[in-house]
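Lab notebook, design round three. We kept the backbone fixed and only want residue identities now. Task for the bench partner: fill in a sequence for the structure below.
Input structure tokens:
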């Protein structure tokens, strides 16, 4: 049974997003998602299940995990918990590292501890700042300062450099994501992708699975659902049937079934939950 979360969202004008959430009840579905940000989850209390590329990991108190951009992942609270979430936009990290992030290195996705040392001190300070935060400029500056200190530690101690082969895979992944983003509304097929990149269909299929942790069909379906929900949220005058066709589904029923498969909810329910956050 899934646990509903109370999310405390602090929109303070930073170039990143940082907030905490606490599990409160046993009723909410935790939905798979991906975004163009690095997401870091710090478990202060309790435990949480994190699925990255279809691999399940359980995080306990004083543990954290870093999830790189464009990676499908989902979370599910297993007990009452308290988790700090930091989201660092891809362009922010690339500008900060002079283009090296996701070109020459990425973050290590393994589970790590923050029970001792400088990282624990910084997270403890962030914990205090986030709980007591208001619009006071000094408190906001403390959150900003401690987040940057945390980022310095992560960049110094928790990265993995790409080998030559890895770099090629990352370049393919970025180009593939861009290609799908520009063509998802068409009758796009795996054959089209293979032809675009000059690879065989079998090799292209394996490469997509390796880079993104899911098949071409699954990824394309997810992109279309995400685009459709986004259109529906931002233009409530357009009906879901026409939106479904606009983003590339042949019928509304296909869109509905895809949304159920990904989120376990109808399109309207997904949109409603996003609007309520």
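Proposed sequence:
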């Amino acid at each position: 049974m899934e646990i509903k979360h109370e999310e405390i969202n602090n929109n303070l004008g930073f170039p990143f997003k940082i907030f905490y959430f606490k599990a409160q009840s046993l009723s909410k579905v935790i939905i798979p998602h991906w975004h163009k940000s690095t997401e870091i989850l710090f478990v202060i209390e309790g435990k949480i299940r994190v699925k990255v590329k279809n691999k399940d990991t359980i995080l306990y108190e004083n543990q954290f995990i870093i999830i790189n951009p464009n990676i499908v992942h989902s979370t599910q609270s297993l007990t009452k918990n308290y988790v700090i979430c930091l989201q660092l936009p891809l362009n922010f990290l690339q500008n900060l590292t002079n283009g090296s992030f996701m070109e020459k290195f990425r973050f290590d996705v393994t589970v790590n501890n923050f029970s001792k040392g400088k990282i624990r001190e910084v997270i403890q300070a962030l914990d205090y700042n986030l709980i007591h935060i208001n619009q006071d400029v000094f408190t906001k500056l403390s959150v900003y300062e401690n987040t940057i200190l945390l980022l310095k530690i992560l960049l110094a101690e928790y990265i993995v450099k790409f080998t030559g082969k890895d770099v090629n895979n990352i370049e393919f992944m970025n180009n593939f994501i861009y290609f799908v983003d520009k063509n998802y509304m068409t009758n796009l097929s795996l054959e089209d992708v293979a032809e675009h990149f000059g690879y065989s269909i079998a090799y292209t299929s394996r490469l997509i699975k390796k880079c993104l942790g899911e098949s071409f069909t699954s990824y394309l379906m997810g992109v279309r659902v995400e685009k459709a929900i986004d259109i529906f949220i931002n233009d409530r005058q357009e009906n879901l049937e026409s939106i479904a066709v606009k983003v590339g589904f042949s019928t509304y029923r296909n869109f509905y079934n895809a949304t159920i498969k990904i989120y376990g909810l109808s399109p309207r329910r997904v949109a409603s939950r996003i609007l309520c956050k």
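Keep this in mind before ordering anything: Residues 43 and 175 are 34 Å apart (CA to CA).
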